[in-house]
Predict the structure.
Amino acid sequence: MNLTTRSKWLTGIAAAVAAWVFFGPNGSEPVEATHASPRAVPPTLAERVADPKAAGTLFAVHSWYVPPPPPPAPVVDTTPAPPPKPTAPPLPYKLIGSYTPDGEKTVFFLSAGDKVYDVHVGDTIDNTYSIDSYNNGQLVLTYKPLNLQQQLLLTGAGQ
C-alpha cells in the first residue's frame, strides 16, 4: 500500500487519540443522584391557579390594523395679498363750456382751482392728462402715467 505523508500523519493522530481514550485517566467516580426538594417540583395541573382577569384575554381577538396617520395640517398661505391695481386720482378739472367757431375745431374751457385752460381734442394738459374725444356732452381724458381714461361731464352753460 502506498501512503502519502498526509495519510501517515492522519493515521498517527487517530492512533494517539484512541490510545489516550482507552488507556487514559479513569474518570469513573460514582455519581450520586441528588433529590430535588418537594418545593421545586412543578405543580400538577389541578394545583395551578390562573388569574381570572387574565383568563379572558387568553383567546381574545387581536387585530393587526394600524390606523393611518392623521392628514397633514393645511398649509396656510402667509404671502401678502397683491397690492390693488393703481387708479388715477380724481379729475382736478371741471368742464366749464365749449365754443365752436365756424368751420374750426371745438375749444373746451376747463378750470382747475384758479386756472382756466382752453384745449382742443388731442391737446395735453400739464404733461399729465391728454384730451382724447368729446361725445354726447362728455369729454374723455387719459391720465398719462397709468394710461387710464376718465370722463368729464359738461356742467351746464355755454355749450
About this structure: The mean pLDDT is 83. The CA atoms of residues 72 and 78 lie 17 Å apart. The first helix runs from residue 5 to 23. Strands lie at 94-99, 107-112, 115-119, 124-125, 129-135, 138-143, 148-153.
